[in-house]
Write a structure and sequence with these properties.
Blueprint (H helix, E strand, L loop, with lengths): L2 E10 L7 E10 L5 E6 L5 H7 L8 E6 L2 E3 L7 H10 E4 L12 H11 L4 H14 L16 H13 L5 E5 L7 H16 L3 E5 L3 H7 L2 E6 L2 E7 H5 L13 H7 L13 H10 L3
Parallel strand pairs: 3-8, 3-9, 6-7, 7-8
Antiparallel strand pairs: 1-2, 1-4, 4-5, 9-10
Helix pairs in contact: 3-4, 3-5, 4-5, 5-6
The structure holds adenosine-5'-triphosphate and magnesium ion (MG).
């Protein structure tokens, strides 16, 4: 049981003047339990790729296998199919907070389970469980989502997805627009979700986030996968600049200490200090 992509190709506006080839014959297999980042220049196809993994987009060619579920060009966007995928794969849109629309935070988080015909009391239980998981204070449950801070709104949007207990979580630029506290809270939450068994695939331009959280990286360019490897191997590539990637400062800094510390263990400044101390420097 895994996510497997075979020869995935996506062309927007096929056979028109504005035809754009966004994904070009991509094949890869994600680990059974993953925390993976997709990185690459703007327009390289990251969002297009991510949207194929929960049926938001359908391949023009090739296939997406989600455990026992297969999406090909013949896939029908029936309500039954869509619900089955959405239960398995949660998708947090970029600036997801703009999609909160109910009168209260609790109602918003209950929306997905209710949509799955889960009975009201059970939907409420699932919603409260998810709100606790994202660490939103109980005093906010009956507030309008419009009155929350940016970080709180994003966590509320995530709670709406987590209420269905998805096995896979896809996130498009989850930290963009958040302040430092909002970002740190989200990082903590994503790590907790991963440790609890959820597999996470996120698109980001934030390389500190990649180093801090992820195990593997998919490097994309012009609709192709250039590399799919562990974080350190990708960040060590000599040609990274060609793909618009600037390594995290802490990674550059660590490279000078490679003789003294195990660079593979350093995900942030705290790890760096710990490694130095451990090695008596
Ligand atoms: N809805 C659409 N209609 C037509 N073309 C699109 C559409 N969405 C994306 N494209 C094109 O497909 C290509 C890949 O776009 P995509 O949004 O997947 O890139 P991205 O890597 O997510 O970029 P960014 O980092 O800017 O979010 C680009 O050339 C883009 O212009
Ligand atoms: Mg994008």
């Amino acid at each position: 049981m895994a996510i497997i992509i075979n020869n995935l190709t996506h062309i927007y506006n096929k056979k028109t003047d504005i035809e754009t080839s966004a994904l070009n014959n991509i094949s890869l297999k994600l680990k059974d339990h993953f925390f993976t980042a997709i990185i690459g220049k703007t327009g390289s196809g990251k969002t297009t790729f991510l949207q194929h993994l929960n049926g938001l987009l359908i391949p023009n060619d090739g296939e997406v296998i989600l455990d026992d579920f297969k999406i090909t060009s013949n896939y029908k966007k029936s309500k039954k199919n869509i619900l089955e995928i959405r239960k398995k794969v949660g998708y947090l849109f970029q600036f997801s907070e703009n999609q909160l629309f109910e009168n209260t935070v609790l109602d918003d988080v209950m929306f997905a389970p209710l949509n799955f015909k889960i009975e009201k009391e059970e939907a409420k239980k699932l919603a409260i469980e998810a709100l606790k998981l994202v660490n939103l204070n109980e005093t906010l449950y009956e507030k309008s989502p419009l009155n929350l801070s940016g970080g709180e709104k994003r966590r509320a949007a995530l709670a709406g997805i987590l209420a269905l207990k998805p096995k896979y979580l896809l996130l498009d630029e989850p930290t963009s627009g958040l302040d430092v506290t909002g970002k740190n809270d989200l990082i903590k939450l994503l790590k907790k979700l991963y440790e609890s068994g959820v597999s996470i695939l996120l698109v980001t331009h934030d390389m500190d986030l990649v180093l801090n959280c992820c195990n593997d990286v998919i490097l994309m360019d012009k609709g192709k996968v250039i590399d799919f490897n562990d974080v350190y191997s990708v960040f060590k590539r000599d040609d990274l600049e060609n793909y618009g990637i600037v390594r995290p400062k802490i990674f550059e800094f660590c490279k000078d200490f490679e003789k003294f510390i195990d660079i593979n263990k350093v995900k942030n400044i705290d790890d760096f200090i710990m490694e130095l101390k451990k090695n008596g420097k």
